[in-house]
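Protocol step 4 of 6: structure prediction from sequence.
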Amino acid sequence: MAKISLLLLAAPLTLAALSTPVAAQEEKRSVIVRYDDLNLASASGREQLSARVDRAIDKVCDLDVHYRQTLGQRAQALKCEKQARSDSEVKLAALFNGASARFADQGGVVVAAP
């Protein structure tokens, strides 16, 4: 009888432990990349913004880590990078095409992990 009650007590704890990683994965991370100090009409300003976006992607997708990732973590990070880069390229293209000869005063580009 004692074994059955221990198993019943352990089951909710096991389920809670298994559901924690799923909840952590559903948490969406994002970074706002400021560009109000850049002149997007110049090639230099566009390059600086692109570099800032690259660093933000590394941050939100855990690509710039100082430990060895498991294969699963690395695969997830690369998938995140691909999606975040695709999303940010669309945003940057729209911004660069509409930024003819003006200073950027919009605030920032949002780089988010999918």
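Step 5 (inspection) to follow. The longest strand covers residues 30-34.
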